[in-house]
Amino acid sequence: MSDLVAKYAALQSLVKEIAAETSDAYDDQTVAQLAITHETAVRQLGSVGNRRILEVSDRDAHRAVGCVTLTEFLQTKLRVTQPKKRLKEVQALEPMHALTGEKLPPVCPNTARELAAGSIGPDHVHAVLDVIAKIPTAIEPDHRAFAEQTLAEFATTLTPKEIAAAGVRILAHLDPDGRLTDDRDRARNRKLNLGCQHSQLMSNLTATLDPITRALFDVVLAKWAAPGMNNPDDDQSPKGDHTDVAPELLREAADRDCRSQSQRNHDALKALLDAAVNGGLLGGSHRGLPPQIIVSITDAQLREHAGVARTATGSDLPISEVVKLAANAQTHLAVFSDATDEPLFFGRSRRLASQSQRLMAFAKYKGCSKDDCPTPFAHTEMHHAENDWADGGLTDWPHMAPACGPHNRAVGTEPHQWTTEKITDGPDKGRYGWRRNTDPPHALRANHLHRIDELLHQHSACNDPSADPPDITQPPRPGSDIEHQLAHLVAERRPHAPRIDITWRDAPLYPAA
Fold first, then answer.
1. Which of 321, 367, 399, 433 has the most C-beta neighbours closer than 10 Å?
2. Pick from 97-101, 128-132, 176-180, 383-387: least confident
3. Which 3-state string (H, E, C) describes 129-144?
């Protein structure tokens, strides 16, 4: 073990030496060969890295560095941007262990060999794996192995896109009439992925739908995505389906409709989701919160009519869209501040947090309180952060913090577990921080992933000596102009609608002494 550690230390030293060198003194052919050699070595090290990841997984070694799951280890310690994709690569290319303990050969041995040789890279690997995943289960193992061998050979000379094209022909050869593809194959390949929001706050939606889902979607689009239907740019556009719409009104709306079919499909899906969320289809509660769009904003964002608001499910909304949502929502809005008519203190009388307690936690944390955890608030549990419920903890708002399921269960007294304590100073004052039980007491870490806007605001305030940064440890007090700002902006959006009353709840946040 010490030899391997020394070799990695020597490798890091050698990398520094190489980085300090320049190829100015070499001829063009040598410079080009150096670049080829470099990329080959990088790909070879990627193969070795897969082996290291498997060793961490086999021994649960990620717990030794404070990670509850292997995925968290890849994401936070190895800085892998797509940890699930990397784990898929490890599972396919590395020799795994059976339940009985013996070591099994790699699922894709030829692809593993080429990656280890540095002749292909991760993109080639995943192109091969994508084709392998589409091979029907009924195909003979020998034919599957031959397909993998062929794809691995192609990968040494073809691009990932060309590998996919070759895969289409291989699949057609293995199952020419489609008879071998069955429900198991379709169920295995079904998926729907919602990508991250990019700089315009838009998201990419990709899906592989099974036949029934496709047929149902076609039915929805036939009605809800018809020309003239659910057009957000037309106030007279019929909403929902067109069952009760007069034919002449629908024709007029269709004549005004300048959207493409793709845009009509998008707007139909949006209308369908709106009907599900606001029509009661989702029930009355999800993890203690109403299954609706819940947004956290500040009076400064409303006053400046700018910025980005974070929802309880982890999405970002521009303030203009928040105002639009408010204008189209119910005619009474309750602005949640640091006062409420629902108790925030239950002591030992109940274990589960109330809706108001969860709303307060969302306003403060926006997501899981464990550092570096990306889980949005809607997927968290309320953690008794001061003392665990089993140890006499109180279900009181100041003593609780949100935590995702894996991190909530990671708190305990064992050396590999975690402790939560309230931070008493600095920008995270008043929030609960996390530390491993083997760390010193001052090593508390708060989660900043869900509070980027707030941290940017603090940074700007620190760089502006004339500015007085606000006290972020307390929410705005009643009497703030947030309710007037929202009412005014909503009125601009909906001038002919009934007046919207903005109500602050009256009971004090903390009980009287």
1. 367
2. 176-180
3. HHHHHCCCCCCCHHHH
Residue 225: which of 194, 191, 198, 262 has the closest Cα?
262
Residue 84's H or E segment, with its range, is helix 83-93
Contact 272, 230 (CB under 8 A): no
- In percent, how much of the chain has pLDDT > 70? 81
List phi, psi (to 5°) of 382. -90, 115
DSSP letter (8 states) at residue 105? P
pLDDT tens readout for residues 140-151: 999 999 999 999
Tokens at 301, concatenated: 């964002």
Burial of 383 (0-12, 13-18, 19+ CB in 10 A): buried
Q: How far apart are the first and last CA of the chain?
A: 61
Confidence bin at 290 (pLDDT 50/70/90) = confident
Residue 336 CA, distance from chain mean position: 26
Buried b (16+ CB within 10 A) or exposed e, 190-219: eeeeeeeeeeeeeeeeeeeeeeeeeeebee
Give yes or no for a contact between 397 and 345, defined as CB atoms under 8 angstroms apart. yes
Helix (H, G, I), strand (E, B) or coil at 435: strand
Asked if pLDDT for residue 174 goes beyond 80, the answer is yes
Pick from 463, 457, 432: nearest CA to 446 = 432
Least Cα distance to 369 among 378, 380, 356 occurs for 380
Orientation angle between helical segments 83-93 and 122-133, nearest 10 degrees: 70
Provide DSSP, 326-345.
Answer: HHTS-SEEE---S--SS-SB
Position of tokens 């990968």? Answer: 155
Convert the pLDDT of each residue in 317-337 to its tens digit: 888 888 777 766 543 333 444
Closest listed residue to residue 360, CA positions, set 474, 484, 479: 474
Tokens of 506: 């009256």
Residue 92 CA from chain centroid, whole number? 25
200/495: higher pLDDT: 200
